[in-house]
Amino acid sequence: xxxxxxxxCLHEGYTPENGMSRQLPIYQSTTFKYDSSDDMGRxxxxxxxxxxxxxxxxxxxxxxxARICALEGGVAAMLTSSGQAANFFAIFNICEAGDHFIAxxxxxxxxxxxxxxxxxKMGIECTFIDQTLPEEELAKLFRPNTKALFGETITNPxxxxxxxxxxxxxxxxxGVPLIxxxxxxxxxxxxxxxxxxxxxxxxxxxxxxxxxxxxGGCIVDSGNFDWMRDPSRFPxxxxxxxxxxxxxxxxxxxxxxxxxxxxxxxxxxxxxxxxPQNAFYLNLGLETLALRMKRHxxxxxxxxxxxxxxxxxxxxxxxxxxxxxxxxxxxxYLPNGSCGVVAFAVKGGRETAVRFMDKLQLAAIxxxxxxxxxxxxxxxxxxxxxxxxxxxxxxxxxxDLIRLSVGIEDVRDIIDDxxxxxxxx
Length: 425
Ligand SMILES: *Cc1c(COP(=O)(O)O)cnc(C)c1O
Fold this sequence. Notes:
The protein is α/β, with parallel strands linked by helices. Helices cover 39% and strands 13% of the residues. The protein has helices at 5-11, 37-44, 59-72, 83-92, 109-121, 135-139, 164-173, 186-189, 235-238, 249-253, 257-270, 276-287, 289-308, 327-333, 349-359, 389-394, 411-424, and strands at 76-80, 100-104, 125-129, 146-152, 178-181, 199-203, 217-221, 313-317, 341-346, 364-365, 375-377, 402-405. The strands form two sheets. It has a seven-stranded mixed sheet, sandwiched between helices. A five-stranded mixed sheet has the order 8-9-12-11-10. The longest helix is centred in the C-terminal third of the chain and has 20 residues, at 289-308. The termini are far apart. Pyridoxal-5'-phosphate (PLP) binds next to helix 4 and helix 5. Pyridoxal-5'-phosphate is lined by residues 82-84, 87, 108, 110-111, 152, 156, 181, 183-184, 203, 205-206, 215, 217.
């Protein structure tokens, strides 16, 4: 039976057999035992499926990956130790020294550094683009060695909504896959594969975990991108892997080639696994993801509307707010809700932002977002504090921007807290 999303949150990935534990067991084991040397050999040849070492695969992790895979509507998925590892693997699985890819400039700061600084040191060049530019402008930036296009469904921290169909058309007309970081929207609110994305990544640290207990990531493949259409563009998938008995991933694994390569090559070599214990916590978070997202969105909209009426507030940005720059895109891609993150500013710039935040009692100042508990951050004073106002603007972050992550508390308490803090500035 094919279940609807809310049911999948509880039942995909792990189905207990007669008399088995109702909850997903934690396979807290580094390794797995075999009766014969041949049994084990076949696993190493990728001829049989099975577990041999947790750095490559673990049953707890696989069950959770399968759940996220089902939620996104993909064909294969893998967990990683963090969202950073997920985005690194997603790109590095198809790019090598001498290659190029394109990413929206308004993405999470950590991803921006990874793409612009660290990947550059590995010989991979990223061109950052303004995602709102017309298609014809963006098309000019693709090169013969371009291997991917990357964006976030809802950007962190500016909560802009990406025109995913536009990006998918651009990517596909240039023969490359579209990779979407769907962390803020989650599959509850947007399933990028339905709009043409090929690969989806997540920082599961955020809403999926939901309780701020485990850093983690995930990569899901739609199975829709045909690596063999232009095989010379993706040699890692279409030519023999010398480090794996000369296997050609695209021939041998078809729609699962991308994730199989990322597991058997990148995870083997970089070892950024999620611990089974963390995967267990993530699984608990997933059980209530649909419920929580509904509440986050309702409360964030109420908070955004409240902030909009306040004299001391300079501006409010939330894609579900009528009149917002991204309202139309949100209506299209996020009809059931966007996320719980609201970007806004109090009048008076950096200094007033800091005074306002220090007066809050319920909303906590934390380097975190998309959490059950309300929290907030002022990028100019925290994550981006080394940057000047000009550099901030270039990175798409207004110097006065406060990123408020609305939690699932009673929204009246959240609004009361904001009210008393605004009175103080
Ligand atoms: C937090 C975040 C990441 C990085 O994830 P970690 O789990 O912190 O490594 C990547 N993308 C987005 C959109 C994020 O919010």
